[in-house]
Every structure is written in structure tokens, then in C-alpha cells.
UniProtKB/TrEMBL annotation:
<keyword id="KW-0863">Zinc-finger</keyword>
<comment type="subunit">
    <text>Acetyl-CoA carboxylase is a heterohexamer composed of biotin carboxyl carrier protein (AccB), biotin carboxylase (AccC) and two subunits each of ACCase subunit alpha (AccA) and ACCase subunit beta (AccD).</text>
</comment>
<keyword id="KW-0067">ATP-binding</keyword>
<comment type="similarity">
    <text>Belongs to the AccD/PCCB family.</text>
</comment>
<keyword id="KW-0479">Metal-binding</keyword>
<dbReference type="GO" id="GO:0005524">
    <property type="term" value="F:ATP binding"/>
</dbReference>
<keyword id="KW-0444">Lipid biosynthesis</keyword>
<comment type="function">
    <text>Component of the acetyl coenzyme A carboxylase (ACC) complex. Biotin carboxylase (BC) catalyzes the carboxylation of biotin on its carrier protein (BCCP) and then the CO(2) group is transferred by the transcarboxylase to acetyl-CoA to form malonyl-CoA.</text>
</comment>
<dbReference type="GO" id="GO:2001295">
    <property type="term" value="P:malonyl-CoA biosynthetic process"/>
</dbReference>
<keyword id="KW-0963">Cytoplasm</keyword>
<keyword id="KW-0862">Zinc</keyword>
<dbReference type="GO" id="GO:0009317">
    <property type="term" value="C:acetyl-CoA carboxylase complex"/>
</dbReference>
<keyword id="KW-0276">Fatty acid metabolism</keyword>
<keyword id="KW-0275">Fatty acid biosynthesis</keyword>
<keyword id="KW-0547">Nucleotide-binding</keyword>
<keyword id="KW-0808">Transferase</keyword>
<dbReference type="Pfam" id="PF01039">
    <property type="entry name" value="Carboxyl_trans"/>
</dbReference>
Length: 278
């Protein structure tokens, strides 16, 4: 004889929290609601830690809506050395393009900032650590040259932890000089270059165009430098100063002109353009 109550129904399974709604802040370790962070320019509402932002999202944050026009997006990296480590370079490029939705580690073009037309470049650390290969250098050089020809203020937002891209050897290293030379010609033509350093800005990028701005802004607590702190410490066998290679340390020592929170960057750039009469 069954003892089951025919009127009873099984309890519905407990509903779990969907993946990705919450994440832990690396700064204060608080649990952050992702949508709240996105509304706050991807900045922690508890401790003001600035999270990673993709290149396309940075374009949306800085430029007036719907004004971005991409330049030289058709350029693609070749594999001149037929380089291979754990994966062939040509296969790595395809995998990175699929994963990030970008064709290389930089977006360049023009748009409006508070109704002021500017030339804009943005590197993205998600694409092979934002390293500077031939395409990154060529796109940035063409960006600078077009800004020179059209007399536009130039904004480059750097997020590059990889420096020169080893997969392309000397062809990658020469991009440092090529972009810097284009910036020298832009400067002689009277252009205004605002360089924005974000976390991370390292290696050959920090040693070339990222450091050459007429004005150098930086996001709070960004890692900025050439070699990483652990590499330097292991090489010179000395204890490094507290906060070494952070934007705050570099502001104190004259390397950075101003630390600008992400939410205020657009307004600060517009104000600087007006102040400099550009």
C-alpha cells in the first residue's frame, strides 16, 4: 500500500546565482555586482579600483556616442619569422582575434569629445598583452600622420603590458622609433598630444610613444614602467620604494602630469584641448 500523499508535489530545485553576476575586487576583495561596476565605468564602488576595460569599451567611454570612425582596420599582422613557441604565431593571431573580437592590439580612428574632433588610439592588453607588433606600430604611425595632416588633437590611451611583440623580432622593436618619429613631426607642426596611461603601461610602449605626450594623464594606481618590479628587484638586488611604478609614485616624481579617474577623463581631455587652444 502506497503511503505517498497524492496531493503533495516535489519541491522545486533551488535556483542558483547565474555565473558572472558577481566578482571579487582585486583591490578591496569585496564582492561587486557586475552591472553596478559597469555603470560606474568599470570602477569598484568600494575602493575606486579601476578594472580592465576593453579597447572598444574605452572608445565608447571617451568619445561622444556614435561618432567613432575607425581608421586602417584592414591592416593585418603577417608572420615574417614563421615564429612558433607553444603555438605558431599565425595560429595565435587567429585565436586572439576570435577571443577578443579585435583584429590586433590597437584601435585607431577619429571621433568627437564633447563636440571636439580628435584623433584617437587605444591599445588593449587582452590581445597578446597589448604588445606592439608591426600592425600596432603602423596603425599608430598613420594615426599620428593623419592627425598632423588634419590638424587634430591626438589622444592615445595605452594599456600595454607586453612591450614590443617578440614574435616579430626587430620588426616589432623598430615600431618604437617609427611612432616616436611621427610624433616628433606632429610636434613640429604644432599638434597637441595627450597620452593617457592605464594599467598596465609597460615595456617598449612606456619607453616610446606613451611617455611623449605634451600632457600625460594616468589612471589611479596604474602600473607604469619599463621592466616589471620583480625583474628590477631580482637584477639590482635592492628593496624598491613602496608604490614603485604606480601612477601616484610617478606623479610625485614628475613623470605624470595628472592622475585622472576614469569617470572624469572625457571632461579633462576636453578641458585640456580648450585650454591649449586646439
Amino acid at each position: 500500500m502506497s503511503t505517498t500523499n497524492p496531493t503533495s508535489s516535489p519541491k522545486p530545485p533551488k535556483r542558483g546565482v547565474p555565473e558572472g553576476l558577481w566578482f571579487r575586487c582585486p583591490g578591496c576583495k569585496a564582492s561587486i555586482f557586475r552591472k553596478e561596476s559597469e555603470k560606474n565605468f568599470n570602477v569598484c564602488p568600494q575602493c575606486d579600483y579601476h578594472f580592465y576595460v576593453s579597447g572598444p569599451d574605452r572608445v565608447k567611454q571617451v568619445l561622444d556616442e556614435g561618432t567613432f570612425e575607425e581608421w586602417d582596420g584592414h591592416l593585418r599582422s603577417a608572420d615574417p619569422l614563421e615564429f612558433a613557441d607553444q603555438k605558431a604565431y599565425k595560429d595565435r593571431l587567429i585565436a586572439e582575434q576570435k577571443r577578443t573580437g579585435m583584429t590586433d592590439a590597437v584601435l585607431t580612428g577619429c571621433g568627437m569629445i564633447r563636440a571636439r574632433r580628435v584623433a584617437l588610439g587605444v591599445t588593449d592588453s587582452a590581445f597578446i598583452m597589448g604588445s606592439m607588433g608591426s600592425v600596432v606600430g603602423e596603425r599608430l604611425t598613420r594615426l599620428v600622420e593623419r592627425a598632423t595632416a588634419e590638424n587634430l588633437p591626438l589622444i592615445i590611451i595605452s594599456a600595454s603590458g607586453g612591450g614590443a611583440r617578440m614574435h616579430e623580432g626587430i620588426l616589432s622593436l623598430m615600431q618604437m622609433a617609427k611612432v616616436s618619429a611621427a610624433l616628433a613631426r606632429y610636434d613640429r607642426a604644432g599638434g597637441l598630444f595627450i597620452s593617457v596611461l592605464t594599467n598596465p603601461t609597460m615595456g617598449g610602449v612606456a619607453a616610446s610613444f606613451a611617455s611623449l605626450g605634451d600632457l600625460v594623464f594616468a589612471e589611479p594606481r596604474a602600473l607604469i614602467g619599463f621592466a616589471g618590479p620583480r625583474t628590477i628587484k631580482a637584477t639590482i638586488r635592492l628593496e624598491l620604494p613602496k608604490g614603485f611604478q604606480t601612477s601616484e609614485f610617478l606623479l610625485e616624481h614628475g613623470f605624470v602630469d595628472r592622475i585622472v579617474p576614469r569617470s572624469k577623463l572625457k571632461s579633462e581631455i576636453a578641458r585640456a584641448i580648450d585650454y591649449c587652444g586646439k
